């Protein structure tokens, strides 16, 4: 079957050229998945907690307009500046304007998948603004001029030796060094000077609370706090789906987030921001960028429940063996495969097929997004809109015809038996690429043959 | 009870012995008939994004099976597909689909068997097919805190002399995934090989499952690489005293047909 516009199989094939790396990548992420399992199993009410989180999200999304206005009102009352961005371009422009107003040329940025989604870094760099990613993993991929391959573990695809070489090149660490403690220490020193000299700090938002106007950013490295507390201006970028109605709902999500992400009971830092310090500014950019479109699709709106824990990636047997870059979207893995088609159906049409529909993503999802069902539903839309590889569509039409007629099915079954029973070279040519690595059985009778002959003797 | 035997297309074609075992097992519980007009559940088309191309298959299914009290197939995957999507694809098949069950569900939930006359003196690993595991909750799932009844494991434990071995990763997908096995060949093969290494490492002589499609993929890899492990559908183990042990099966098959 042709690969057509299937970008994921192409990326996956490239990743699978290095078998040792695939095994290593799989093992590293499986380790995280197992940590998550242990953490989840320590909470007897885990499944109820997931259900509660899903219901809070469903409720919030059902009245998102009201909660957003409430949030805006309360945040403004607290002295926070609120900006609304309908798309990536507006988001980036608003940030560039804020930075220009403060003549900010040096920016430190903590992890924010939204700024990845909007392509903020290249946008600002073109305007001669230095943007330093301060999350260690993000700094690694930034130095390597790559994109994150995972939303929680952006540099999970890099081995420590590769990080050592990268740091040697950019941060002048010892040649050949690969000790994580040493490399982390050096990164820390390097980032300290960046924090101290930053004109502005950009952060993401994990949760925003409608009834207080405050927001929470979770990290393990404290880089959000270093950035936001030192710089004069703090710009927080948030997708409009990040809201929860009130402070009491936060606990549900904070309990779920880190356990699902890394198996920790909670992130090392859960930093709450409510109002700027004297003489400082906090700006929040509320970004749509396709979210209301997704919200309008009943089959797919629950994808907006996502709290970006990455658990679906760690559990996904396909993600673990194809790497985040094979998805070619800012959010890889199963969740990326249901978010991306809403952005560009044709471009990302291979992603919903990068799954065996095993359903593990749905089972680990802390906010109960029915990810594998949505993958299946996107497949149908991709089929209807004509974005399937041509060969695949033809084969399915033919198969459908055969299976729709008992007589044709019997005839094809007899032919199939002949082909499989005949010379392997012929059969296997027709069935390539199944048979490049796998045999097929070639029994000399079908069950139907046997039944017709034996039904009366049994 | 008039039982309609649903034999998935690929089992009919490639694994007739699984059909035979299922037929012989079911015969203990009712009058079993295999309607020869049946074709397929339509999953290959639907999972490929072509639900519309699968309507014909479900129509044939409905027509073939509507006259039975109950319809049983040795495949969680095909039955789950009919249940989860078949009803949407062709709503008038709902009544038939509502009385269609996977073999494990039939034996465990409906017949509630407590004893079985079967012997299988081998080390066996249960490969929990994803559709049985997560779709039907036949077994407990490592990522879920809520436990399931472990129906397949309990059925296998009824078999005399069987020794169940556990893999290191309790329930990872084999990588078959229908057309995924072809369109995402590299990942599919890697997933399959990883599963095999796990089962072999833990000393299994046989891998069994309620879904032959997983086993077809795994067996394809086993045979190509000449690995020292075999696959066998659960129905074959449960009917082991009826159909004879797998080693002798070839003789039976040949004598039946020729």
Question: What spatial order of strands do you see in the largest sheet of chain A?
Answer: 1-10-7-4-2-3
Unreliable stretches of chain B (pLDDT < 50, length at least 5) are: 244-258
SS summary, helix count of chain B: 15
The largest sheet of chain B is: 4 strands, parallel
Classified by CATH, the class of the largest domain in chain B is: Alpha Beta
Average pLDDT confidence of chain B is: 93
Quaternary structure: heterodimer
CATH topology of the largest domain in chain B: Rossmann fold
Helical coverage of chain A, percent range: 40-55%
Mind describing the biggest β-sheet of chain A? 6 strands, parallel
Low-pLDDT residue intervals, each spanning 5 or more residues of chain A? 1-5
Distance between the termini of chain A: 42 Å
Helix fraction of chain B by DSSP (H/I, runs of at least 4): 40-55%
Q: Helix/strand/pairing class of chain A, anyone?
A: alpha/beta
User: Which band does the percent of strand residues of chain A land in?
Assistant: 5-15%
> How many beta-strand elements of chain B?
8
Number of helices of chain A: 23
Domain module count of chain B: 2
